[in-house]
Amino acid sequence: MEDVLTLSDYEIERGKPLPSKNHAIIQKRLLLAISIKHPNLDVLPELAIDFLVRDRVPDLAIYRQVDFTPGDDETVMTDIPLGLIEILSPSQSTADLMLKRGEYFGAGVQSYWIVLPDFLTIYVYSSPTSFEVFSKNEILLDEKLGIELPLSEIFK
Fold first, then answer.
1. What is the dihedral of CA 123, 127, 130, 132, to 10 degrees?
2. Domain spans in the chain, listed from the N-terminal domain onward
3. Three-class SS of residue 5?
4. Chain-wide mean pLDDT for the chain?
5. d(CA 127, CA 137)
6. DSSP, residue by residue, 57-111
């Protein structure tokens, strides 16, 4: 008998794999570290963004500043963020993240991070074909966004 892949309501609704405990911890640490060290940036989690190909819900979206406007909310952002961060989930393939890379840069994103929690590594793409790799105790430097983060704070 064939195994049938069953998607959770979360995966169907968001079009992405169900995150895990480690995924959530890394997401929280990145959000806090960037927000504290770079107060000129807004880091927004799980935000639906209208990309030219389709709506996507990246783990974290980095904007210059986003206004909080009571009574005037958006469920799908049309403003393209400066940067995006995707954290590999246990049930996700790196091929999925690489596919998104093309969509994101095609829409105007300046920087795209792929976080591999099990390898304590972050790939920082400055274009679809140019990237730097930062690991465990190194200092991540995203030159396009001016972000500098000690990874020892993220992967502790």
1. -30
2. 9-154
3. coil
4. 90
5. 24
6. --SEEEES-----TT---SSB-SPPSEEEEE--TT--HHHHHHHHHHHHHHT-SE
Handedness of CA 122, 126, 127, 130 (dihedral sign): negative
Q: In the structure encoding, which two tokens stand for residue 64, read together? A: 């210059």
Q: What is the pLDDT of residue 91?
A: 84
Length in residues, the chain: 156
Write out pLDDT tens, residues 123-150: 999 999 999 999 999 999 999 999 999 9
Tokens of 82: 């400066």
Residue 93: how many other CB atoms lie within 10 Å: 11
Pair of tokens at residue 67:
């206004």
Q: What is the pLDDT of residues 54-109, one digit of tens each?
A: 899 999 999 999 988 899 898 999 999 999 999 999 888 999 999 999 999 999 99
- CA dist 156 and 96 (Å) reads 27
pLDDT of the residue at 20 = 87
> Amino acid letter at 80?
I
Structure tokens at 93: 């393939």
Level-2 CATH architecture, domain 9-154: Alpha-Beta Complex (3.90)
